[in-house]
Specification:
Length: 340
């Protein structure tokens, strides 16, 4: 029992009860008023114990317990460690303080909206949608395993994301490689070889054991969708580049490293390269994946093949995301019909 404070300044009390193996935490927010509330509640708990009263959190499972079960199940399913680490950090920092005030069965849609408004008002619509989607997955896990019966996000629909025009082109991509730090330049080259998702879930997790020189393939072990785990065929140039890079440092484990260690993020070095290249429009590392897919389709690649290499769950996803970028394809299609 006692008062604690999180890294981001939220006060909480922690105590043990008979029904639970792990300690219970009650959060009170930041500031003097929050600290005062935490002290009062801590004193109440101490008084109950002094009187010999048994402490109870109430009936039903709480969200922190459900989240722990979900994470354990995800580990058993071999979900990406990097993803789990990031998600656990978000859970501890923003989600659990907002949702552990009441049992799962009593959490409401309003509670989730308040969480999104208070904690994620400064993130992109896509990120907010993703976080709420993860929370919904935890609720669904509870229902599927007959632990709980409530998903307040059952009727929730993702907020519409504004389409972001792809402005990056091949010439600017070459310029980025030219001015980039060596580790970033190599990361961009590898991304251009395979079109992987550019974070730790795919690109930065590629190992040398994933490269099959004899069969000219690169194994992208994605986990986002059922089709994310995939083999990418390599052209002879890229296949040889990987072999030559490997021979320079045979002791390395990861294809992309910095000072012999795997990279966690490359956003800062990428932004620096964008400034050095004097590119005056918004560009992200992820745009290279978009450009990779667009150029393949624009040059006549089969839609189904590109969809499979991107690791999309369906061809429809690929069509919706990329076909609008292929200027002139409708006119090209019309010109293919025979003349009567």
């Amino acid at each position: 029992m006692g008062i604690g404070i999180t890294k981001d300044g939220r006060y909480y009390i922690q105590y043990r009860i008979k029904e639970r193996k792990s300690p219970v935490r009650e959060y009170f927010g930041r500031g003097k008023d929050a600290l005062s509330s935490a002290k009062i509640r801590d004193a109440e708990i101490a008084l109950q114990k002094a009187h010999g009263e048994e402490l109870h959190q109430g009936k039903g499972i709480y969200f922190d317990e459900l989240a722990q079960l979900y994470i354990r199940d995800a580990k058993a399913r071999n979900v990406s460690k990097a993803f789990l680490k990031d998600w656990v950090n978000i859970l501890n920092k923003t989600v659990l303080p907002a949702l552990t005030h009441t049992p799962v069965e009593k959490i409401t849609y309003s509670d989730l909206l308040a969480l999104a408004e208070n904690q994620w008002s400064d993130v992109s619509v896509a990120t907010r949608n993703r976080y709420l989607g993860y929370i919904s997955a935890i609720f669904n896990f509870g229902i599927e395993h007959e632990i709980t019966a409530n998903n307040p996000l059952k009727k929730w629909k993702k907020a519409r994301e504004e389409k972001r025009d792809l402005q990056l082109n091949v010439e600017d991509l070459k310029l980025l490689i030219k001015v980039a730090a060596p580790h970033l330049g190599w990361a961009i080259e590898v991304e251009w070889m395979c079109g992987a998702r550019t974070g730790r879930s795919e690109l930065l997790s590629l190992r040398w054991s994933d490269h099959d020189y004899e069969n000219s393939t690169l194994h992208v072990r994605g986990t986002k969708t059922a089709t994310s785990n995939r083999l990418i065929p390599l052209n002879p140039t890229d296949n040889n580049k990987l072999k030559e890079k490997r021979e320079l440092n045979p002791s390395s484990k990861f294809i992309i490293e910095y000072r012999n260690k795997p990279l966690k993020k490359i956003r800062r070095s990428f932004n620096t390269a964008v400034e050095k290249a004097e590119i005056n429009y918004p560009v992200r590392m992820y745009d290279i994946r978009h450009l990779w897919a667009t150029e393949l389709l624009r040059n006549g690649a089969d839609l189904a093949a590109v969809s499979a290499m991107l690791g999309h769950a369906s061809i429809r996803t690929t069509q919706q995301k990329y076909y609008h970028l292929m200027q002139g394809e409708k006119a090209k299609a019309v010109n293919l019909k025979p003349t009567l």
